Amino acid sequence: MDPNQLAFDRDEEFPALKDEVYLDHAGATLTSRSQLDAVHHDLSTHLYGNPHSRGHPSQLTSDTVDQIRCRVLQHFSASSTEYSLIFTSGCTGALKLLAEAFDYQGRAGGYGNKDVGKGHDSDNKGDNSSTLSKNPSTINDSVNEFQSCRKGSFTYLLDNHTSAQGMREYAFQKAGKVQCIDLDIHGNTISHSVLSANDSDLSGNHLFVYPAQSNFSGKKYPVDWIHQVKRGQMPWQQDALKDVNGSKRCENCWFTTLDAASLVSTSPLDLGSIKPDFVIISFYKMFGFPTGLGALILHNKAAHVLKKTYFGGGTVAVSLAKQRFHVSRSSLSQRFEDGTIPFLDILQV
Q1: What pLDDT, on the 0 to 100 scale, is given for residue 107?
Q2: Contacts of 124 by beta carbon, 8 Å cutoff, 6+ apart
Q3: Which of 116, 134, 189, 300 has the fewest Cβ atoms nearer than 10 Å?
Q4: For residue 250, which of 74, 85, 105, 124 has the smallest C-alpha distance?
C-alpha cells in the first residue's frame, strides 16, 4: 500500500485527543471522524429494517449483513465456503457460546465423519434439534450409554483471557479432564495443573484455547501450534492426556480456539493457511467503533461439535408450543444468533 494512503491529519481525524496522549490501544482503539461521518451518511441515506421482518428495508439489512460477513472473512483470508461467521456481543460472548455448546462426548473420528453432518453453513443441521424433539426415544440406548462414559478434555493456557478461564466452569460439568498449562515459545511444558479429572474414557472431543497475542503481556504465541495440537504433536498432549487403558486416541478429535482479539488490532491473520477451528475477535479492538460487537469465526468442518440447546428469535424456522418440536434455521449463523442481531452496529463495521 502507498504510504501516502495511510497519511491523515491527527487533529482532523481525532479532535477529541487535543493535547491528550492515548495509551490504552490494547483496551480499545480510537474512532476516527471519517468513520463517524461515514456511518452518519449511511444511516441517513438508507432505510434499514429488522432483518426478521419482510419488505424492502428488511431485505436491504439482510443483504448488507451477509456482505459484511463475507468482507470480514475476506479480511482474514478465509473462504466463505470453508468458514462461517457468527456475530456475538464480543470476545467474551464468543467464548461463552463455545463453552455452552462444545460437545466433549462427540463421536470418534472428528473431522470427516459423515454421521455428524457436513458442517457447511448452507446445509448442516448441526444439533439435529428437530429430529430429537420429535421423538427422543428413538435414539439408540447403547450409543447413549457409550457416549455418557466417553468424554474429552478442556485445556487452556495460563496466559489467557479471563473469559477463557471462565469456560472451565462449563467444562467441569461436561469434560473428563480440565487442565491449565504454561508453555514456553517452543510448546514445551513449564507447568501443568489438573483442576478436574475422572475415570471417563478420554476418547471424546478435546478443546484447546490460547491467545494469538496476550491481552496481559502483549506476548505473541505461535500460530503453528494449531497444526500441532490438531495432530496431537504437542509435548503436553503426550504427557498430560493419556487414555485410561493406555491406548492411542482417535485422530482428528482435537479442536483449537484462537483468541485473536488482541492480535488483529495491529497484525494480519491468515486463516487460509493456519485453519483453526474457532477464532474470536472484537471489532472495537480493530476499529474502535462499534463497541459491544464481536464474532465467532468457525471452520465449517468443526460445526458438528457445537450442540445448541436454547433457541429464540430468529434461530428457529418452526416451533410448536404444545409439543417439544422445533426446526433450527439452516445456516450456522442463523442458528446461533439468538434474537434480533444488532444490525445497525453490524452495518457500521
Answers
A1: 58
A2: 117, 118, 300, 303, 304, 332
A3: 134
A4: 105
> Closest Cα to residue 305, out of 143, 168, 167, 116?
116
- What's the pLDDT at 102? 97
The 3-state DSSP class for residue 75 equals: helix
Measure CA 15 to chain center: 35
Q: What is the chain's mean pLDDT, rounded?
A: 84
Helix (H), strand (E) at residue 246 = none
CATH code, 3-348: 3.40.640.10
Distance CA 310, CA 62 (A): 23
**223: CB partners within 8 A, 6+ apart:** 212, 258, 274
Nearest to 255 by CA among 206, 293, 288: 206
pLDDT in tens, 292-319: 999 999 999 999 999 988 888 778 888 8
Q: Is 87 within 8 Å of 295 (Cβ atoms)?
A: yes
What amino acid occupies position 17?
L
